[in-house]
Amino acid sequence: MNSTLNSAIDVSRGHRFFGELTEQLSADGPIELHRLRAVAQYVAENPTRFLSWLKEILQDGVAMRVAAARSYWHPNGFAKLVLHTSAEPEFRIRLHVWPLISDEPPAGESNPHSHRWEFASTVLAGGGLHMEEFEETTRSGKLFDRYRYGADPANRAALLSDGAVRLKRVAAPHVRRGAVYQCDTDVVHTVRPIEAGLTATVVIQGPRRVQSTVVYCEPGQSDDQPNGMLTEAQFRWLLKSVVAEAGA
Predict the structure, then answer these.
(1) Which tens digit of pLDDT belongs to each residue from 172-221?
(2) How large is the average pLDDT for residues 34-46?
(3) What's the whole-number average pLDDT of the chain?
(4) Neighbour order of strands in the sheet with 199-208
(5) What share of the chain has pLDDT > 70, as a percent?
(6) Per-residue DSSP letters for 70-96?
């Protein structure tokens, strides 16, 4: 790692609230779901202090460039801002942002999917998120094409076809601003903002538990859904928008 990247990391580590978050995540013992939830709860109880960290990133060009370079647009139109990564112990702190682009609520993550890692999240700005959780069934249920994500050693981002299955909805939790949601690797869900307007969630991601995960697409839907490049200017705009909305 070059000196510029080291400098950016050192700047982030200098923020007191960020240090408290990483200290909780780096404590002895494995990073289990209950610890991720506790850290997300700590963010939910201290939104002003979290926003102070975001403001510090905005004020440091190097730190912002490093974070922007590892962030991206999800194919369903929201941004995944990767604020911090740690290899040992393995965890990430991300900010998911659905920007204001129309008078209708954004689509969100409309394809049912699971994750290779556990996470806990809290809504920082906006009205909240609507989740739907699913299970595979051999009886009634909507038909989907199933794909495996991360199963191709040559291209971990590829979706490999894995047959057709039916899904039934088993839960539909709402997560309002300030509330905490947790998710393990067995959960298959969709996520969408409840209201129009900017919505932002803080995601505390734990270590990878499985090599591949599942994504379900409606029959005939393209499986070619690449992530989009997110520019430094877009990163700055999104971060400033979140600070303005959450601090209002």
Answers:
(1) 999 999 999 999 999 999 999 998 889 999 999 999 999 999 999 999 88
(2) 98
(3) 89
(4) 180-183, 117-125, 199-208, 90-98, 79-87, 72-73, 228-229
(5) 90
(6) T-EE-TTS-EEEEEEEEETTEEEEEEE
Quote the CA–CA distance of 78 and 99 in Å, as a whole number: 7
Whole-model pTM?
A: 0.90
Q: Rounded distance, CA 58 to CA 38, Å? A: 26
- Sign of the C-alpha dihedral computed for residues 93, 191, 217 and 106 taken in this order: negative
Q: Are strands 79-87 and 90-98 parallel, antiparallel or unpaired?
A: antiparallel
Helix (H, G, I), strand (E, B) or coil at 153: coil
* Interacting residues of 47 by C-beta distance below 8 A, sequence separation 6+: 124, 178, 246
Distance, CA of 108 to CA of 122 (rounded, Å): 16
User: CA-to-CA distance for 64 and 172, rounded, in angstroms?
Assistant: 36
| Cβ pair 222, 159 in contact under 8 A | no
CATH number for the domain whose boundaries are 3-246: 2.60.120.10
The reported pLDDT for the residue numbered 57 is: 94
Cα dihedral angle (166, 205, 104, 75), rounded to 10 degrees?
A: -70
Quote the pLDDT of residue 20. Answer: 94
End-to-end CA distance of the chain: 38
Compute φ and ψ for 44, nearest 5 degrees.
-60, -35
Element spanning 238, H or E: helix 232-246
